[in-house]
């Protein structure tokens, strides 16, 4: 564009629409800081006179504490304090749903890794060595390690006084005793997966002069942390001020407390700043994992391939404390038939206490485990019917207007069949050319040079899934946003303040985009996340763009209304005729009225709004509810794998995904979520399992717990469609979780297709595929 | 002990270093350079990758004393003041950064790659970055970023940063 004859700037010039709004892919605002190494993660923090905290953990999965002697540790040079349960100022219990977990163990330890004592010292190594000097006398007990046995057998010792069942939920639809011509059944197990976020748990607590404490930390939900921490510290929540630092990934693993209360206790006791940073091994003990599950399924269908019934029993091992187990049971049972229309359903789900490591939230919460089972069943049914597995799925796919097993009618698009067709139609990779020597890097085993193609077989498999978005079953799910608009340096500047945890997913970018679109201003700053604004809820359940997006939209519109009222007052235009665009106030009748900056002058317009999504309701004793969940999201994967059947090595060659995202607020970030989520599903399919024996984690390191590297993750075709949900802001549909769910069964189906093995456990290991 | 080393072109000294400390600990806790990350402390994740005499290493596996009188290059030294290095710019542009915890190590490894191999194939990129774990991105956008950085280098004839003059 030439500016040779450009006139001086006049408000009547309506510029092009503001760039970087909803539907575009502006770059993330924290990107430059992150690539410079200047972004301050919680483990990077430092304060003058800072001490280092460390945590003594139980070596036993079940034991009675007879006594603790802190004397030798306290006398060690460089040690400032040693704390035990007796030093917890307030309630020595916390929890997300059931408040059942001690801040520091008292009388009993219920899992290997449970926190027993704390040390603060002047060097991290001094603190670690002091832990060895704390003398704990344990009476070791036999651990409860089998969740199904705990559910079935009354004689199993009680891990908690109230019994071992955290939640039991049946779901019944139609005739629970229905019969069918074609029946397939199977037992499926899912191993314990770890979130394996790269940034370990960490926080810096600074004691305040008012008796309170400031905690800088990495978390998924500041207000949830504050509520639990304040109760344990016996402090007014206003005195527990939490500020988000850089978060090195989360994936559900930061929903529960880890070091929060501990580091505040040490800071308040010593009167000095204290930092706790877990190392990788401690991180494996310091957060919850994905629930391992054992699932019994039976599917009945007509000869034509119409599903008649699904019956299932699901056993989830919740470990020593409840955490999100109630929600896992709720999601697992309600979503237990998958994205299919099934007239007759009978599902029972149990979430159990055991002395295994506590399990809780991980991406795909409660929906990952049954998806592996129901999709395996669909493949088994297709084989028995002699049908194409994709055609069988399309034939039974749920769609808009369909009814879930809980009786909820889907009153928004549910393009399950369309996703299956689309993913099937994506281009396939070329087959190996038998006439040329393959590049061994493309084969299972890669540069290890284990095969030149001999013994390698290829398979293709599909998976599709359903996941609920946002909190469910009657939870009041909301977020809060404060938006301020003022003139800075001659131009309008919006400031958005929420507590929505930026854990890498890009909610900071989304908030900027929404504000630009709503207010028509280019410059949008994101205030640091803290507890000085109302709750946002957790960055989980694929919910932040929905609820915090909704809150930012609402706050922006309130600011806009005030701005338009100001304009009406000053310029005599009726407010009903006015709107904001391109940094200006525009009248429908007379065009540009004024620059936003001119209207604002020295005024600061600030509004705070909450966004509550439409109400959900609890399940009754039959698992019925008019609306148990606010929204459902769907994705479909196709996997292509090569398997070296002699060595049992698996290489995923290509992994493709079609997903409905309602509205892609930031299309590039949506693709990033799908790629990253798919990689975690690949991990569960072929490599990731926390090995637990007699209640103890055997592989708490990245040497022994393997997550996908860049060599394990194949290229992806990602196909995003937008079938907007009329109930959601901008029509958005949660994005983060589905790709983690449908990728796993697709990969396993492909391995089955290649090898002919049944494969009833994930992760699939070499021992499962050696012919 | 006292440790003297050169970091990002500057002579630096750390006092009272305990013999058991790693180079990573000294960089992060004693020299005010927390850009290099600690995610596993076993050399498995690559988040702490730095140049040591222009060779990429896991700083968590280098004893602090081994860095005496040597040259260390960290993520903080990749950019030329205000100007991001080509790999840094490409990681931002391609959306290769989500949580960003793996990013500093990946940038050093990628910077090293495009200095050694100006036009790397996809297989070469994967091999070069196989020691760097990322849990957020699924690696696709990291692949795109390294390709973009290499293409931009080829287009301008500008080589990479810290390790750029390596023979």
Automatic annotation (TrEMBL), chain A:
Residues covered by region (Disordered): 1-22, 429-452
Source taxon at top rank: Bacteria
Pfam families: Ald_Xan_dh_C, MoCoBD_1, MoCoBD_2
UniProt GO MF annotations: iron ion binding; oxidoreductase activity
Ranges of residues in domain Aldehyde oxidase/xanthine dehydrogenase a/b hammerhead: 36-142
Entry protein name: Xanthine dehydrogenase, molybdenum binding subunit apoprotein
Source organism: Actinopolyspora mzabensis
Taxon lineage: Bacteria, Bacillati, Actinomycetota, Actinomycetes, Actinopolysporales
TrEMBL record, chain B:
Superkingdom of origin organism: Bacteria
Annotated keywords: 2Fe-2S, Iron, Iron-sulfur, Metal-binding, Oxidoreductase
GO terms of molecular function: 2 iron, 2 sulfur cluster binding; metal ion binding; oxidoreductase activity
Gene3D superfamilies: 3.10.20.30, [2Fe-2S]-binding domain
Entries under SUPFAM superfamilies matching the protein: 2Fe-2S ferredoxin-like (SSF54292), CO dehydrogenase ISP C-domain like (SSF47741)
Domain 2Fe-2S ferredoxin-type intervals: 1-78
Matching PANTHER family: OXIDOREDUCTASE WITH IRON-SULFUR SUBUNIT (PTHR44379), XANTHINE DEHYDROGENASE IRON-SULFUR-BINDING SUBUNIT XDHC-RELATED (PTHR44379:SF8)
Listed name of the protein: Carbon-monoxide dehydrogenase small subunit
